[in-house]
Design goal:
Layout: H1 5-17, E1 24-28, H2 31-34, E2 41-48, E3 51-58, H3 62-68, H4 78-89, E4 96-98, E5 102-104, H5 107-111, E6 116-121, E7 126-135, H6 150-157, E8 166-169, H7 177-181, E9 199-203, E10 206-216, E11 219-227
Antiparallel strand pairs: 1-6, 2-3, 2-4, 2-5, 3-7, 6-7, 8-9, 9-10, 10-11
Helix pairs in contact: 1-4, 3-4
């Protein structure tokens, strides 16, 4: 398969935003070397005007722990650290939605003749590979030219200005009515969430994402760290 401009752009963006200095794309590669690391690839899908499958394969993942920060432990996974770079990598295909990142076997993706594989280097040796496959436009959403179907866009337009409640929940607690009536200023309520655990981002009462609480100009805010799949977002 010939190199596509969009595929090369995605690879360059990934290299630029991976939390490791000095990374660059050295060119196209075949699956011969990358296949040895396929079983521990980080994969994701992006759905929009096109359906895109991507995989990040790294020879050494030790830098991910350092990027997560001291004391992160099991609270921060490799997928959390890599997500910002993958989000930038699919920017050429915006608008659309990126799925959760997962550690899964990318053998089938690497061996697909429609997949482009790009080699990443740290200037001294091969650092890893980035695989990307662009599939047909999503049926019912996009037209043959890869743009949003006009009837679908019109239907979306009817609800674009509908407001919904977005709330952030850092934890919950259950208590008896008698205990709730006994609450006084100064009482501390223990929540079911450990310190440092991600907060739940709720849209109209439905959990859609996880995030971390931050301060923006003396106001509280939340930085999204993970978008949840439908199966992970119960009512």
């Amino acid at each position: 398969m010939t190199v596509t401009t969009t595929g090369a752009q995605s690879a360059d963006l990934l290299a630029a935003y991976l939390p490791h200095p000095g990374l660059a794309v050295t060119g196209r590669a075949d699956a011969t070397a990358a296949i040895a690391f396929a079983s521990r690839a980080v994969t994701a899908g992006h759905v929009g005007a096109s359906a895109v499958d991507v995989a990040v394969l790294l020879r050494d993942t030790a830098f991910l722990a350092a990027a997560a920060g001291a004391g992160a432990g099991d609270l921060v996974q490799a997928t959390d650290v890599l997500r910002p770079a993958v989000e930038h990598a699919v920017e050429p295909f915006a608008p659309g939605a990126l799925s959760d990142l997962a550690e899964s076997d990318a053998t089938d993706l690497l061996l697909d003749p429609d997949t482009e594989i790009y080699e990443l280097s740290d200037g001294l040796a091969v650092f890893g590979w980035f695989a990307i496959r662009v599939r047909a436009a999503v049926a019912g959403v996009t037209g043959p030219a890869g743009v949003l179907d006009s009837s679908f866009a019109d239907r979306l337009g009817r609800i674009n200005d509908v407001e919904m409640n977005l709330t952030v929940e850092i934890g919950r607690a259950r208590m008896r009515i008698i205990d709730a009536l006994a609450l006084e200023p100064g009482h501390v309520i223990e929540l079911d969430r450990s310190a440092g655990a991600p907060a739940d981002i709720m849209l109209n009462g439905r959990r859609i994402a996880l995030g971390e609480v931050v301060v923006v100009d003396q106001d509280y805010g939340v930085r999204i760290t993970r978008i949840l799949d439908v199966a992970e977002a119960p009512n």
